[in-house]
Amino acid sequence: MKKYIVAILSVCFAASVFTACSKNDDNLDIPLMYEGDKYAKNAIDTFIINEYIIPYNISVKFRWDPFEVPTNKFLVPVKEDVVIPVMTIVKQIWINPYEQMLGKGFIQKYAPKQYVLVGSANYNNDGTIVLGEAEGGRKITLYQLNKFDRKNVPFVKQMLHTIHHEFAHILHQTILYQREYKQITPGGYTATWYNTSNAQALALGFITPYARSNSDEDFVEMISTMLVEGKAGFDAIVNAQTPAARDLLRRKEALVSAYMLDKWKVDIYELQTITQAAIAQATN
After folding, report:
1. Name one GO molecular function term (predicted).
2. Where would you tag: which of 9, 44, 76, 277 has the fewest CB atoms within 10 A of its CB?
3. Which fold has domain 2-282?
4. Per-residue pLDDT tens for 155-174?
5. In this model, does residue 198 exceed pLDDT 90?
């Protein structure tokens, strides 16, 4: 079963938004490097072997493989010159913070074993964009990487949000979170979450609109937002809400914190601090 992290177009039916997020923004003139072709290993392959395969048994596919991506979408291969920068920053801001707290063995055991890199976004017909997806805790696909710029902090944080979201799925599928979590906002989940704005979601006690899709997505969106925004950023979001919404979000935060500490021996507030320092250093 695939799990998706999706970016909402803030006003789904506004012409200006569709223009801003049009497929025409993607450069289609990218040479294909087919995974199945014979090729001599280059500097990218060496980097992947040394930084991912040897230490963590994680493969990174950047050459085009049609069997690894949706066949019903118009997708663009990733540019070679962004592969090492992307995977360098992934290691800096995702692997290193967890490894600092829990050791290399934790990443070796629980991290997804394959990354698939795609240059363009994955557009849906309902006005949303798939930024990343995961299959059964085994593979993470990252989209829209041809726009990568390590100094573009919002883009880097968006990419990190995707990874943390998908990794949090692996954690809760390994050890389930508390049943009480599902009872905090049980009536707020909806299949049409994409019709919800950020402000509306927060007012209902959901940290993002996508968190409204179901309790599992709600839980991992809390984890990913807490880590990507850091304590100060997360507190600013929550404290700006009404007392009722603030109470719901704080109750969810408390259960997330307890889960991470009790089940994984991770102080999420310490992990927030380490992650924020890593983001600042990597994007400087």
Report:
1. hydrolase activity
2. 277
3. Collagenase (Catalytic Domain) (3.40.390)
4. 999 889 989 998 999 999 99
5. yes
